[in-house]
Every structure is written in structure tokens, then in C-alpha cells.
Amino acid sequence: MFNKILIANRGEIALRIQRACRELGIPTVAVHSTADAEAMHVRLADESVCIGPPAARDSYLNVPAILSAATITGADAIHPGYGFLSENASFAEMVEAHGLTFIGPSPAHIRMMGDKIAAKTAMASLGVPLVPGSDGAVADIEEARRVADDIGYPVLIKAAAGGGGRGMKVAFAPDELEEAWQVARTEARTAFGNDAVYIEKYLDRPRHIELQVLADSFNNVVHFGERDCSLQRRHQKLLEEAGSPALTAAERDALGATVTAALSKLGYRNAGTLEFLYQDGKFSFIEMNTRLQVEHPVTEMVCGVDLVREQIRIATGRRLGYEQADVTFSGHAIECRINAEDPETFSPTPGRVTAFHAPGGLGVRVDSALYAGCVVPPYYDSMVAKLIVHAPTRAEAIARLRRSLAEFAVIGIKTTLPLHQRIIQDPDFIAGDYTIHWLERFVARS
Most buried residue, 7, 67, 319, 376, by most Cβ within 10 Å? Predict the structure, then answer.
């Protein structure tokens, strides 16, 4: 086991990793910006190192400072969490070059899956179904027109190096294609320094389904079921469920068998999540995240597994120690992402939290770094808490979530708690009848 782990992140995910380390008896090092000097992840770590000023590029993305912090504290491994440097293949390579262990996949697999075109090509070669579209990057508008005519409108133009909805545009008809293609390329160049785009068939009513996997260094791969992440606004997830109200156990098992076989052939290692669009009984691969997901707690709740602990064990070179048949699913879990945003305008609302009360009781979990008196800085992602509930059935989980949201209090800043209270009262949500386009329409009519 590791002697000391540096956590290259902040907020609730840094605390989440600290908890797993503490239960394993591993000391932790927190890195932080000057804006986070009083943050909870800093207060609870065994050691802390300031790595720069508030801006992420000067602190949490400051690779030399992070590696120096690991060296001076004697850490022998780095866990990147999610976001920031978690899917940066060059960072993973530098960690390894400094004689440290990167708690995550190999740099080669991070790089492969970070390029959406390379990822789709690899998955297709391993028998994973794809959304119909271009074979690779679209070189010019004439090729774009040929591809769009072949697969049929509407089409989705997507950045090859994209994420978070940036570099993504829809063309519903031929006269919209050129503008959408140009805008997507411009956004991709600005956001990722790479203007390569590809084209997919735009599905009008899909669900966003993802599958959680773990793999060791001996080609043993298991999956931990699906999460339904269809409730999104501007391609940002707000609420997730495990399992999906739309899938049967047979569909889950079939998808899981396909995915685990593919990743075993690929030689993948550590945690990963494969994301699919699901419509008319068909799954279509869209991307793979080579890291821990924000929504991993719902999987932990229904499977009874500590995914962070498993990441750490795998990184030490240990075998998984169990097979797919040993993974069981119990009940239903739902997660709400609570953001420091105005629930009507979605404008960020940084500031001081004057009072904080988290709900509790059977089957309730809150992952958050908030506390009364803390300051939510304006420099980072606006998510400040995750409320996760678990119950024997989906109906009971919704009832537990309704009760928990009513108990949750964050005073001093506006949050999206009222939005979640409205969502879970809606008949469509209660019936589990929604797609990735549902929340945009819900917000517009609310």
C-alpha cells in the first residue's frame, strides 16, 4: 500500500478521496490555492501545501507546483479526482517520470479516450456500437455535407477534443450546416486548441446512459451497472440515477458484457465510465471518461463498493479479487448536484455561507466541503454539494429525496436546491419518462 497520497484536487472530491485514504490508513497531502487556504479539504488533510494564487491555471493546473509538493512531502502517489488534471495524459506521464504512481488509467489510454475520434475508432474495432456518423474528423464543409446527406438530418457537429458541450452544434437542415460547422470549429479551437470536429446523427429523444467499470492490471474487468444521466442543462448533468428507469436487467447485462470484453482486450486499467445514447432499444457509444465520475456515489450506494478504495488498490498492482458474478445490485439511488447558482437564471452565486445544515437519516448521504462560515470562491466550478439517497425502490428513493431536499439548508448564497425540489415533483420525472432534452424544456416552462 502507498505511504502517502497527494490529492491533486479540491472541494468535495478531495474530501471523498481523503475519507477512503483514512480508512485504508494512508496519510494524505492536500494542495490548495490561496483562495482555498481555509477550505475543508485543507483542514482535514494530514499535510497541506499552497501551490499558487486563486486562478486554476496558476494552482490546481500548475503541474510543476503539484509535483514539487509531492516531492517535498514524500508522497508516493497522486490521485487527481475529477476535472482539472484528471484526464491530462501528459500530467500522468510526468507523475510516473518522477517515480510516483498516478492513481488512474495509463497515459496511453487517457490520451486515446481524450480524443473522441480515436476513442470511437477503438471502440468500434472492439465491437462496441456507435452513433452513425463520420469515420473521423471532417476536413471541410464539402465533406461535412456528404456525411450529413448520407446519415440524414438533423446532425450533430462535435469537437474531437471536446467536453462539457463546448464545440457542439446541431444542424437541423442543410441550410444550417455550414454555420453550425464553422461555429463548432471556432468553439473547439478556443476551448481546446484543436478545431477538429466530427459529425454524428442527432438523436431526437435519447437517454444518456453510462456504465461504471473497474479493471486491474491482469485484464480482469467488471462493471457496476448503469447510471441514467439524462437530466442535463446545456450538456451539464444535474441529477443522476442508478439504475436507469428505462433499462431492464437483461439490457444492463448485455451492455456490460460487451463493454467488459472490449476493455479487457484493450488492456485498460483502473476506473472508467463509458457513456452511451440509448434510444429505441439501441445503445450508441459517445465517449469514455478515464477517471472517477462526479456521480459515482449512486453506483456505490446500489453496489456497496468504495470505488475510490478500489482505485487505490488497483494502483498498487493488486488484483480485483472478485468477478462479475460477485457484483450485486440493491435498490435504487438518486443524486442531485447542488450548485452555487441562482435557481432561475443559473448565474454563479459565490460568497460566504452563513449557515449550513445537511439532511440525514437512513439512506441519505451528502458529499460536500461546505461549512458555516466558509466562502465559496468565484474561481472554480459552481458545484458545492451532492445529495445522494438510496432506498429499496425508485418510488421510495424519490420520497426520501423529497424529504431530504426539504431538510437541506444553505444560507448566505443562492443554490439550485429549489430547482431540484421542482424537478422531483414533476409527473414526467416521477414516471421516469424523460430524455436528455427534457430538462431544457422543463426549465423554459418553469
Answer: 7
Contact at 8 Å (CB) between 134 and 199?
Answer: yes
Q: Is 77 left (phi over 0), alpha (psi -120 to 50) or beta?
A: beta
Are residues 211 and 255 in contact, defined by beta-carbon separation less than 8 angstroms?
yes
Q: Which residue has the cell 441529477?
A: 239
Q: Using a CB cutoff of 8 Å and minimum separation of 24, what contacts does 436-439 make?
A: 436/206, 436/207, 436/208, 436/230, 436/232, 436/277, 437/204, 437/205, 438/230, 438/231, 439/231, 439/232, 439/233, 439/238
- Domain limits, CATH 3.30.1490.20, in the chain: 132-201
Predicted confidence at residue 367, as pLDDT, reads: 98
Over the range 92-115, which residues count as b (16 or more CB within 10 Å of their CB) and which as e? bbbbeeeebbbbbbbbebbbbbbb
Predicted confidence at residue 161, as pLDDT, reads 84
Question: What is d(CA 186, CA 194) in angstroms, rounded to the nearest whole number?
Answer: 9
Measured at the CA of 320, the angle between CA 318 and CA 326, to 5 degrees, comes to 160
> Which pLDDT value is given to residue 411?
98
Domain 5-103: assigned CATH number: 3.40.50.20
Domain 207-445 annotated CATH 3.30.470.20 = yes
Q: In angstroms, rounded to a whole number, what is the distance separating the alpha carbons of residues 366 and 350?
A: 20
CATH 3.40.50.20 domain locations along the chain: 5-103
Catalytic residues: 291
pLDDT score at 298: 98
Instruction: Name the grid cell of 164.
Output: 462539457
pTM of the model: 0.93
| pLDDT value of position 164 | 67
468565484: which residue's cell? 378
CATH among 3.40.50.2300, 2.40.30.10, 1.10.645.10, 3.30.1490.20 for 132-201:
3.30.1490.20
The residues of the chain scoring below 50 in pLDDT are: none
For residue 390, which of 429, 337, 335 has the smallest C-alpha distance?
A: 335
The reported pLDDT for the residue numbered 165 is 73
b/e per residue, 265-284, with b = 16+ CB within 10 A? ebebbbbbbbbbbbbeeebb
CB 26 within 8 A of CB 4: yes
For 41-53, letters b (16+ CB in 10 Å) and e give: bbebbebbbbbbe
